[in-house]
Amino acid sequence: MALRLAPLFRRAAPYAQVFRQLCSSPPPPVSLTEECVSRLKEISTTGEHLRITVDGGGCSGWQYKFSLDTAINEDDRIVEQDGVKVMVDTMSLDVLKGSKIDFQRELIRSAFVVVDNPQAEQGCSCGVSFSLKL
Q: pTM value?
């Protein structure tokens, strides 16, 4: 009996793989560290969420901008984690995909930062601007 079922299992294997891919949820486009979530909970007032944009400029060509915002735009992608929301517009998301958002406290400043951006090749020493991998 086992010999007769073996061809059926071989034919079903590709479908099982597709089914697993369809059922698994995709990873979030960006992830948030515990420090980022904690700081957002401290500073967010009613309805405010962190907005991240990528703009041209800075000493390396591109720069990250962080702000608190209440408006959700049509082209925003929202990442929610532990009750906080981060909004990223679709154009900026292409540059940020796979990154981590962190909050770092240092002697001279405390700020939200993007770390481990797979699309960034190099950055300046301040950590705000970067160049893209080509």
A: 0.75
